[in-house]
Amino acid sequence: MSDLQNLEDLLDCMLEETDGDKITLNDLMSTVESRSFGPLLLLPSFVALSPLGAIPGMSVITGTMIILIAAQLLLNRDHPWLPSKLMSISFDREKLDNGTSKVRPWAKWIDKWLAKRWTILTKAPFSQIVAAMAIVLALTFYPLALVPWGVAIPSGAIVLFSLGLTSRDGLFVLTGLLISCLALYATYEFWPF
Question: Is residue 44 a contact partner of residue 69, using CB atoms and an 8 Å limit?
């Protein structure tokens, strides 16, 4: 959806444009299909940050999706691609409904802060720097999957990157970079091995 501007738009798209008792990742990704990588990075990072991220194995799935999407942004590809096996993973509609209702107040609060500013930070070569940092952060999802809510800080940073790219808000990109430093430090401190 090319007119996606914020988190509430993303939640509305996920709810309105999916149907059935089982929802696949392909269904969710197709709701934000766009030439812009911001919304495509936003969906898995937002899922990892939301209560849906507490589903066992979800952080590994979302981390893999982030790596695949960010790598394509890093390589400056025109159209995103994800493997069909990953896109066929499904979960109950009720989990989507419950997860979106729990995060909607937070989404509404964050949306008040979005604006089109410092747009230079949302374009190349800065978008490639964001993509590289998103890959590094998503790699931390694998060991942090063993820590309850361990991916909250890195996924939060990727959400900020994604929101910045989606709404052309360079301040969110810059804030995401700062939180990335915190996420990498926390990963180092609380490394589960």
Answer: yes
Number of domains in the chain: 1
Phi-psi group of 135: left, alpha or beta (phi > 0 → left; psi -120 to 50 → alpha; rest → beta): alpha
CA atoms within 13 A on the CB side of 59: 26
- Residue 2 within a domain: no
Domain range for 74 is: 7-189
- Which is nearest to 177 in space by CA: 140, 139, 143, 126? 126
Instruction: Identify the three-state secondary structure at position 91.
Output: strand
Q: Is residue 169 part of a domain?
A: yes
CA distances in angstroms from 1 to 84, 141, 177, 178, listed in the order given = 20, 27, 26, 29
pLDDT digits (tens, 9 = 90+) for 69-114: 999 999 987 667 778 887 788 888 888 888 888 889 988 888 888 8
Q: Report the residue count for the chain.
A: 193
The answer to whether 9 and 26 are in contact (CB under 8 A) is no
Q: What is the largest CA-CA distance in the chain?
A: 43
Secondary structure class of 24 (helix, strand, coil): strand
Could you give the C-alpha distances from 170 to 40, 123, 162, in angstroms and in order? 18, 9, 11
| Peptide bond between residue 125 and the one before it cis (omega within 30 degrees of 0) | yes
**Residue 2 reports pLDDT greater than 90:** no
In a domain, 178, yes or no: yes
Strands 90-92 vs 22-24: parallel, antiparallel or unpaired: antiparallel
